[in-house]
Amino acid sequence: MSQINGVSSSLNDKKYADLQVISFDGLFHGEAGTLNRLKSACTEDGFFYFDLSTPNRQWLHDLVAQLIDASGRFFSSLPPAEKMLYDTDILGSLKNYG
User: Fold this and answer.
1) pLDDT recorded at residue 65
2) pLDDT at 98
3) For the segment 23-43, what is each residue's pLDDT rounded down to a tens digit?
């Protein structure tokens, strides 16, 4: 077992890029070091590993549930014509392929 930027990995099984690890918990709590690593990762590499582990995961699960609920309420409240304004086929350049 080896460490790549603090992330345990078995290099025999998988290949990993040498990227910075950004802690969601650190970002959520506004830690300056984490914010600086995020800026560095975005400007230097354009990619990073996003660490979602946290000592107390319940708040993260609650946050995700709230986001899903809010998006559901937002889109269910719109009339069909307005929903079509957000259609990814119409937005074109904003469409994600994967």
Assistant:
1) 92
2) 46
3) 988 998 899 999 999 999 999
| Same domain flag for 31 and 66 | no
Domain identity same for 39 and 62: no
Low-confidence ranges of the chain (pLDDT < 50): 1-2, 11, 98
Q: Which two tokens stand for residue 17?
A: 């890029």
- Beta-carbon contacts of 64 under 8 Å, excluding residues fewer than 6 positions away, are none
Site of tokens 């918990």: 25
Residue with tokens 């319940």: 58
Please, what is the Cα angle at 68 between 83 and 84, to 5 degrees?
Answer: 10
Residue 97's contacts (CB-CB under 8 Å, 6 or more residues apart) are: none
Q: What is the residue range of 65's domain? A: 58-94
Distance between CA 20 and CA 41 in Å, rounded? Answer: 6
Query: How far apart are the C-alpha atoms of 66 and 83, rounded to whole Å?
Result: 21
